[in-house]
Amino acid sequence: MVSDELDIATKTNVPARNDETPVQYVNELTTLNLGPTHPATHGIFQNILQMDGEKIVSGEQTIGYIHRAFEKIAERRPFYQITTLTDRMNYCSSPINNMGWHMTVEKLLGIEVPKRAQYIRVIMMELARIADHLICNGILGVDTGAFTGFLYLFEERENIYEIYEEVCGARLTTNMGRIGGMERDLSPTAIRKIKEFIQRYPKVLREFENLFNRNRIFMDRTVNVGGISAERALSYGFTGPNLRAAGVDYDVRVMNPYSSYEEFEFDIPVGQSGDTYDRFMVRNEEMWQSLRIIEQAINNLPEGPYYADAPQYYLPPKQEVYKNMEALIYHFKIVMGEIDAPVGEVYHAVEGGNGELGFYLISDGGRAPYRLHFRRPCFIYYQAFPEMCVGSTLSDAIVTMSSLNVIAGELDA
Amino acid sequence: MLTNEEVAQTIIQQFGDAVSDFDDPFDLLTFSVTREQIIPLIQYLKEHPTYQIAFLTDITAVHYPDSPGRELCVVYHMHSFVNNYRVRVKVYLPAEDPHIPTATKQHLSANWMERETFDLFGVIFDGHPDLRRILNMEEMDYHPMLKQYPLEDATREDKIDALFGR
Question: Any idea where the domains of chain A sit in the sequence?
């Protein structure tokens, strides 16, 4: 019936072909703006898509909506004030950025951080990784139409943020730790909360996995969606879970261990096809591995000081400042940013929530860096997004973007 | 394990006068190369059978306004996953002629890195498929990371550099 009608329709629409000019179909494609403020892009960036019906033909990205010129600002700030800039890059896992920056400066200054501080840092970084991954995977669930898993996980993120609060006083923009160690020791409450968290979280994560891993609808939406081969992923500069989902086991924590990561036992999960489902599974498994690391770290937390013996760089205890002349001088010099930084250039990378987060620091001996560049993993791999979604439908593109975990703050610096 | 010494020797043998300023700050091999040889060098490192320095970690630039003829420095960080070995390559350019060939044919990831470097420093990557600004708006007519643009209002007198930074 339908085909008959169609036939008649086409027949009646065909113009009389008595001249030589062929029928022109001008601009069959639809231009669709996905973003900048679209609820499904999870951040402010725009994609101008050329659509042929439901299929994406090409995409063009516009980024920079929240570019805040961190690299320029950093050229005027003392080293310790740059930590607050790093908070605002990947705001889902600020502690990793903070620690990465502290470690970069410590490398430049030649400070050896005591074991206890390193272990506390590992705990906080892994908590941050869990917080980062659970948001990404939870939101992926929301984008495929399942809100429940997201709510389960978000309750746990709240608990992670309470641990942050206990350790540094802040929740989102943590500004955690200091150059030379942590600003305070783990309080008994913090230790209790961390232990409670590693007791409670496996149950939640397992429930989340039960909801999603073999879910028919979820698999239909994610398997073979937005895949990328290992070769292309490497050429596009992928790192982190997105690269591992494509089958390359590159992890900065293992390749260039920092902060005593070499003392912990954990596995690196890898995927095969680099599609959305693999990225989801890799992130889930990484959360399990992070739990393993936290458990090892909190159970073997070494005794000793939580900051390095470097009085010219690390703020003295406040009560000392009131009583002790040297402490007062150091306090004043550090707060005014007058520390003696050596001349040098450093590249230090940490495994951020999204991949290799690098800090390239050039110091000319002044109070602020001469040049500071952040290697933001998001910025580098997001350029592959058009290639990953060309030929798929709009709904697939949204799921792909969600599973890439593009954080606008990190994208734009 | 590759040693900096060994890699440096191989590169000197291959590229001769084009490479110079060998150094290894914090154990990371650093050297500079002429802009004519940067793409052959990237290609060589990528295709070298044992080194396989095939992952482009980062491209950025640094501005040195006080060194005439070498004002702009484009910095490449590359990484070999097979050998777990990193290398940093620098190309110095004069400010009046900030042209350098693009690395997008060797590494797809160079696309946005080069656009960012162009946006912030005005380095022109010849042969780049789409060299437009990326973080700043198109209408901007200067490159903000250059040192001649101070971060704060230069006419202010209440903040002196001796106390509040450079």
Answer: 2-62, 70-375
Q: Cα distance from B108 to chain A (closest Cα, Å)?
A: 5
CATH superfamily for B4-164 is NADH:ubiquinone oxidoreductase Nqo5 subunit (3.30.460.80)
Give the span between the Cα atoms of A405 and A372, in whole angstroms: 25
Tell me if residue B97 falls in helix, strand or coil.
coil
Instruction: With cut-offs at 50, 70 and 90, classify the pLDDT of residue A17.
Output: low
B30 close to A (CB below 8 A): yes
Query: In chain B, where are the structural domains located?
Result: 4-164
Contact at CB, B135 and A64, closer than 8 angstroms? yes
Place of tokens 């040192």: B147
Q: How far is B151 from chain A (nearest CA, A)?
A: 7
Q: What is the pLDDT of residues A259-273, one digit of tens each?
A: 999 999 999 999 988
Q: Is B162 on the interface with A (CB under 8 A)?
A: no
Burial (0-12, 13-18, 19+ Cβ within 10 Å), B32: buried
- Which candidate from A255, A368, A412 shows the least CB-CB separation from B135? A412
pLDDT digits (tens, 9 = 90+) for A89-131: 988 889 999 999 999 999 999 999 999 999 999 999 999 999 9
Q: In what order do the strands lie in the sheet with B55-63?
A: B19-23, B29-33, B85-93, B72-80, B55-63
Entry pTM: 0.89
B65 touches chain A (CB under 8 A): no
DSSP assignments along A290-312, one per residue: HHHHHHHHHHT---S-SB-S-TT
- Give the Cβ contact number of residue B30 at 10 Å: 21
Contact residues, chain A, for B116 at CB < 8 Å: 379
Tens-digit pLDDT profile for residues B82-122: 999 999 999 999 999 999 999 999 999 999 999 999 999 99
Nearest CB partner across the interface for B111, out of A250, A368, A383: A383
Query: What ipTM does the predicted assembly reach?
Result: 0.91
> Nearest-CA residue of chain A relative to B161?
A76
CATH fold of the domain at A70-375: Cytochrome-c3 Hydrogenase; chain B (1.10.645)
Cα separation, A184 vs A164, whole angstroms: 12
Question: Among B134, B140, B159, which would you mutate to test the A interface (most chain A Cβ atoms within 10 Å of its Cβ)?
Answer: B134
Instruction: Name chain B contacts of A360, Cβ cutoff 8 Å.
Output: 58, 60, 75, 77
Rama region for A271: left / alpha / beta (φ>0; ψ in -120 to 50; rest): beta
pLDDT of residue B155: 65
Which of these, A57, A191, A52, A65, lies nearest to A119 by C-alpha position? A191
- Closest Cα in chain A, distance from residue B70 (Å): 16
Among the partner residues A236, A248, A371, nearest to B109 by beta-carbon distance: A236
Contact A354, A405 (CB under 8 A): yes
Separation CA A352–CA A334 (nearest Å) = 28
Residue A62 reports pLDDT greater than 60? yes
Chain B interface, mutation test: which of A347, A378, A406, most B Cβ atoms within 10 Å?
A347
